[in-house]
Amino acid sequence: MSRPAKRSLTIRGHRTSVSLEDPFWEAFRVIAAERGQGLNELATEIDAARGTSSGLASAIRVFILEHYRGGD
Length: 72
Description:
Layout: E1 5-11, E2 14-20, H1 22-34, H2 39-50, H3 56-69
Antiparallel strand pairs: 1-2
């Protein structure tokens, strides 16, 4: 497994850094493309749905897991 790679995203006009392992970044890009969205747009949706109980990186990982389990 690769070390997390930090990349910048813009959510509601604010830049933030998210650290994910390369396979998660790849899956995140694929899912966004399948939905016809950019990463920032999809990250904004995930951020809005996550509440305050988890960090954004964790919420993205769970979103990806649920997507591939058929929950999305």
